[in-house]
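Task: fold both queries, return tokens.
Query 1:
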Amino acid sequence: MSGKSQLTLPDEELDWIQLRQDLGPVIEVETTKEKLQRKIKENPLVPLGCIATTAALTMGLYNFRTGNRKMSQMMMRTRIAAQGFTVAALIVGVVMTYGEKKSN
């Protein structure tokens, strides 16, 4: 005896290998970073709207804290406009994605 044993498997246990070959290549799962990059490329206006909303909110809160009520009020109104822009960009992106999937 050589000390090495040989393992034999029944043909039924190897059927999944043939099935995988028949199905073709396995699709790789994208990472969170890759998905974020893809989504930003697909609809770049949404991140832009998020940045604008955050900037307006930050400036509005800063001006509120320093007592500049007029500027604070203007920044809060600007924040609402930026949020509206972001929502509109989301809706346009969803409609465009749905249209592309439906035409394929």
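Query 1 returned. Query 2:
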Amino acid sequence: MAGGRQEKDLVHLNAIHVENVKKERRYQKLHTEFSINPYRKLHVLPDKPMCSKPPESLSEDTTYIDAYRRVRMAPSLKYPKPITESQEIGWFVNELPPQDRQDPRFNFPRRKTDITQLALFTKKRGN
């Protein structure tokens, strides 16, 4: 062939394939422990009505149930301090003090003045 390029035969192609497989196996990790993702919603279906298995024979996995409950908890119950900056807003929630309607500093009721009464009067008349 022209340009110094040689055609690859089956031996060279097999050697390239073996090298690729070795690279893949070097970075491949075998996972033998499988579990259900606790961050996804779980749709629990009951047994069939005519099921003959007694409920005692069904084993209960408490680790998954605990992980599921922990995921569904509010962040303030899961963690002692806020994790992100956006969680800092509203993390320490205290109840508001009782409202005192007699205190003029905090209570601003609507009041009628001469101008507002005139505006209401002209609006009712249709001018």
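Both queries returned. Flag for query 2: The two ends are 98 Å apart (CA to CA).
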